[in-house]
Amino acid sequence: MNAPPDLDTLKFNADGLIPAISQQHDTGEVLMMAWMNRESLQETFQTGVACYWSRSRKQFWKKGETSGHVQKIKAIRTDCDRDTLLLLVDQVGVACHTGRKNCFYLEAREKQWVEIAAPLKNPDEIYGKS
Fold first, then answer.
1. What is the pTM of this model?
2. HEC profile for 30-70?
């Protein structure tokens, strides 16, 4: 990964976070949305592997650290307002903690959310739960 550009040109929110959308670089499939802070973004630039900020745990979340399902960075883009990031990645394994290829497996149909993609992996097997 290249050295990071000036991160001061990005617009982090009041909590110091910026939304980051990950997309499979060769197919265009949207995989997930997560949050990054300045430090997790710097870590991502340094390692070439996606690192997010967990709002619930208030700590770094190195994608795939537990599951092995890492996101190898191909490119990092920002939008015209510089308040959202797009990570073009090579996803190893599944992106969603539910065992699905991506996190967008529920579709609005006739006043309800319908599951449109089944899990490819059992989450208990991914995370070693019994």
1. 0.90
2. EEEEEEEEHHHHHHHHHHCECEEEECCCCEEEECCCCCCCC
